[in-house]
Design brief:
Strand content: 35-45%
Largest sheet: 4 strands, antiparallel
Protein name: Angio-associated migratory cell protein
Oligomer: single chain
Organism: Aquatica leii
Helix content: under 10%
Radius of gyration: 21 Å
Number of strands: 32
Number of helices: 3
Keywords: Repeat, WD repeat
InterPro entries: WD40/YVTN_repeat-like_dom_sf, WD40_repeat_CS, WD40_repeat_dom_sf, WD40_rpt, WD_repeat_multifunction
Pfam families: WD40 (PF00400)
Structural class: mainly beta
């Protein structure tokens, strides 16, 4: 491994347990080298808490409790964050000044989202109060209060807001008119969803392990799983850009979108489940991350393991960055930037001192918005060369 492959401080990498498998090597259990085993007993989190500096370019400190969620506007000029303090803020990425204070929530704000043209910001709390705010007028224009909310998203092509509830119902609203369609409950909570690239279909995961493909116009179920249904509830899912493949967590099963048939599974033999899954369509790769600290990069076209690595911290979130960059958040408050092609660690972004709860990338891929249990949100610049 060349020195330029790992651009981190020497003391950082000495505290980090990382194991890489060459893509041509046989997949097998790998033991740490004796040299790494002989390092000091202090963990990565100990090092972070004691010595690490804040590498962020801006820190937002208005929240008083954990910041659960964050979003960046399409223009790249605004950020939005929501937290346990029952409030959401829209603020400038240049200086952190608050542009809009989204009040009125009755519980933790767990979802914030800009619409497709940055005209609106939607905020939602755990109790089911959903509010939509005009960014131009800086005022509340629409709200709805219903069942406990599980997830909230905008349609990527229109002013259509979609929310999934603990009851299992999925609500589809036209904003600001408020016209509503309900994709009726199937008896268990809906936990996650994604609108497909054609804008006409929605994939939804459920607490009983079921996945359903909905037609948004008719409100009909196009298919639901009939075989190999995950034994645990679906906690997250991702879809390829061409809407051909679907992967779900925690089972790491890969399905065809056209008919729901399983085509692969991406669990290591010593792993029971994964926490997060994410496709990189340009490279034909799939990343999985687990609470054990294991994260893997798979070639989903060849059904082969490219790289396997282990961090000394549970993984909470994974995002793909520009080109071949894989960005991993952990419970130690660090953000790890890795080269997915070579399997090398590029840099460790420090500044948080508690769990990373969400990561959002700017449209140009040069900036990361992170939120944390430490009551802050931070902006980091990432290397793209």
């Amino acid at each position: 491994m060349e020195e330029e492959d790992i651009d981190v401080l020497e003391e950082n990498k000495d505290e980090l347990e990382v194991v890489y498998l060459d893509e041509l090597e046989e997949i097998e259990d790998v033991e740490l080298d004796d040299e790494l085993n002989d390092q000091e007993d202090a963990s990565t989190s100990d090092f972070i808490n004691q010595q690490a500096i804040d590498l962020s370019k801006l820190s937002f400190n208005k929240h008083t409790k954990s910041v659960f969620t964050g979003a960046l506007s399409k223009s790249g000029l605004l950020a939005a964050t929501g937290g346990e303090d029952d409030i959401a803020y829209v603020w400038s990425v240049e200086n952190g000044d608050v542009v809009l204070e989204c009040t009125g929530h009755k519980d933790s704000v767990t979802e914030v989202a800009f619409n497709f043209n940055d005209q609106y910001i939607a905020t939602g709390d755990m109790c089911g109060l959903i509010q939509v705010w005009s960014l131009n007028e800086k005022k509340l224009i629409w709200c709805y209060e219903g069942d406990d909310m599980e997830w909230l998203m905008w349609h990527h092509l229109a002013n259509v807001l979609i929310s999934g509830c603990e009851s299992g119902d999925i609500y589809v609203w036209q904003i600001p008119e408020g016209h509503c369609k309900v994709l009726a409950s199937q008896g268990t909570s809906t936990t996650c969803a994604k609108v497909l690239s054609d804008g006409k279909r929605l994939l939804a995961g459920y607490g009983d392990g079921q996945v359903r493909l909905w037609n948004l116009k008719s409100g009909n179920v196009l298919w639901q799983l009939t075989t190999n249904i995950p034994t645990d509830g679906v906690t997250s899912l991702d879809v390829t850009d061409d809407s051909s493949l679907l992967v779900v967590a925690p089972s790491a099963q890969l399905f065809k979108v056209v008919d729901g048939h399983q085509v692969a599974s991406y669990l290591l033999t010593n792993e029971n489940e994964v926490e997060v899954v994410a496709f990189n369509n340009e490279l034909g790769l799939l990343a999985t991350g687990a609470l054990s600290g294991k994260f893997c990069v798979w070639d989903y076209k060849k059904n082969s393991l490219r790289h396997e690595a282990k961090l000394e911290t549970p993984i909470t979130t994974i995002k793909w960055g520009p080109r071949d960059m894989l960005i991993v958040g952990g419970t130690d408050g660090c953000i790890y930037v890795c080269d997915a092609k070579s399997g090398t660690l590029v840099e460790i972004l420090t500044g948080h001192n508690a769990d990373i709860l969400s990561l959002t990338l700017s449209k140009d891929g040069t900036c990361i918005l992170s939120t944390s249990d430490d009551a802050t949100a931070k902006l980091f610049a990432i290397k793209v060369n």
